[in-house]
Amino acid sequence: MRKKAFAIALVIGALAPFVSAQGRLERVLAGRGRVVDLTHRLSPTIPYWPGEQYRPFEFRTIATLERDGVFSGFFAMAEHMGTHVDAPNHFVAGQVSVDRLRPEQLIALAVVIDVREKVARDPDYQLTVEDLRRWERRHGRIPRGAVVFMYTGWETRWENPEAYRNRDAQGVMHFPGFSPEVADFLVRERQIHGIGIDTLSVDFGPSKDFRVHRIMHGAGKYHLENVARLGLLPPRGAIVIVGVLPIEGGSGGPARIFALLP
């Protein structure tokens, strides 16, 4: 009898997030739910990765209502610009491209780990396994299939691209990121879908080997970078929905990310 009750409890626990999500969606459709847009607007002034092969976001008008009876524009951008997804093939050959990410991977429970105080003291701060343990002691185990967000507060620099890149005299960027140890832990011990951050990269600014990218992508996981408004999410309980352009064979692409709040 106890075994049966335990099995039922496990099933109920596994289904709880989906039942909760259905209720949240119903509230949103009825105009009573809360939705947060985690996406920065695209414009020619947004920050982007430095280098000769990169250039600002471009938009130009190709048809007008006055001349053509319709308004239409043309835009051009790198895959990894603005709020975007890094697909597993970004750093690991043979891994899936952005158009091959499964839809069920792109809807997930959100875990938000607030490290703003540590980043204020050290702009090169890297999230540690102890940070995860501390979060779990307060909020419970990181759920399987979650997207784990590192909330650094770096978004406050978004309107100033140079401050966002934060380069020193040698051109080295300085901003926070995940540590390789955390990436390995989340892949092996928590079986997450992906990670996200409010900076240019999930690896910290001075990184030369991008080990977090390689660990995550090697395990078939994706990243969300330049995420906006993480401060509006609770530490646990939100559901994120990631819409990304399915560029055939692409290593990533611009995303529109929404969070359904509890």
Side by side, the strands of the main sheet go: 4-10-9-7-5-11-12
Number of helices, counting only DSSP H or I runs of 4 residues or more: 7
- The assigned CATH architecture of the largest domain is 3-Layer(bba) Sandwich
Low-confidence stretches: 6-15
Folded structure, characterized:
This protein has 262 residues and is α/β, with parallel strands linked by helices. It folds into 2 domains: 1-33; 34-51 and 78-260, Glucose Oxidase, domain 1, CATH 3.50.30. Helices cover 27% and strands 23% of the residues. Helix 7 (211-218) links the parallel strand 9 and strand 10 (222-225). Helix 6 runs parallel beside helix 7 (211-218).
Features:
single chain; 262 residues; alpha/beta; Glucose Oxidase, domain 1; 2 domains; seven-stranded mixed beta barrel; two-stranded antiparallel ribbon; globular
